[in-house]
């Protein structure tokens, strides 16, 4: 059942790559920061539940996790050639294969997070939240300025 | 066929209300502005196609429109009680029923826009783009500071 959920989510999101276009560099920077910010808000709501700061709510957990999955696919279109700047370190562009690999790992963890949220128990959510948070941190440590 | 597409999209998005939570007023303002900005980027890509500024691409049109539909549901959670500010006029809160009505109309136009994008011709896209842009403007005219 878990595998089916993961596959279904992957199929859903695989049909929605980000097709964003930018006239100016600053538009791309604003776009990627906005997409990551929206994702972070919903990821934060899951974290509050995983940590017990707010009561566990299975329906809200699913909703937030589904939004995280959707948003996880969007930011990368905003890191195109010539869009250096913002909080991004220059190695986003000079080590782009590694950047894309870590971005893809986060997307994969988000899909697993949404599947875990559908299990309906806080223990599953907590484990998947931790794994996803780790994938955020791995990329931020290498590619984001503090 | 068009009706089926609209229903399918409505069902897809109806399962994903925004369940965002905010510790601070500025977080809510940042969230709604970010969500609206991401939506505007993808709506702008559709506009460029509708206006002939970039070549019509049926697949990209569908992708962008599906993202617009998804994003159209998110911003409203960021306009909760006590989050006055940003570009929002005070009447978002004092005339909240009207605000919600116009927001809902835009969500409905976005669903029709995505159905039009799936028709695969630029004329359908152009007509639906215009209607959706009108629903953005109607709300901005009443509720957004310039």
Note the topology.
Two copies of one chain form a homodimer.
Chain A: H1 2-14, H2 25-50, H3 58-72, H4 91-94, H5 96-117, H6 122-143
Q: How would you portray this structure in words?
A:
The structure is a homodimer of 146-residue chains. Chain A is built from six helices and no strands. The first copy, chain A, is mainly alpha-helical. Chain A has one domain (2-13, 24-143): Four Helix Bundle (Hemerythrin (Met), subunit A) (Up-down Bundle), CATH 1.20.120. In chain A, helix 3 (58-72) packs antiparallel against helix 5 (96-117). The longest helix of chain A has 26 residues, at 25-50. Mean pLDDT of chain A is 90; it is low at 1-18. Chains A and B meet through helix 2 and helix 3 of A and helix 2 and helix 3 of B.
List keywords for this structure.
elongated, Four Helix Bundle (Hemerythrin (Met), subunit A), mainly alpha, homodimer, about 0% strand, about 150 residues
Short description:
2 copies of one chain form a homodimer. By secondary structure, chain A is mainly alpha-helical.
Q: Using only CA atoms, what is the Rg of chain A?
A: 15 Å
Average the pLDDT over all residues of chain A and give the rounded result: 90
- The proportion of residues in beta strands of chain A is under 5%
**Basic shape of chain A:** elongated
Give the number of helices of chain A.
6
- How do the SSEs of chain A run, as a string of H and E? HHHHHH
Secondary-structure arrangement, i.e. CATH architecture of chain A: Up-down Bundle
| Number of distinct beta strands of chain A | 0
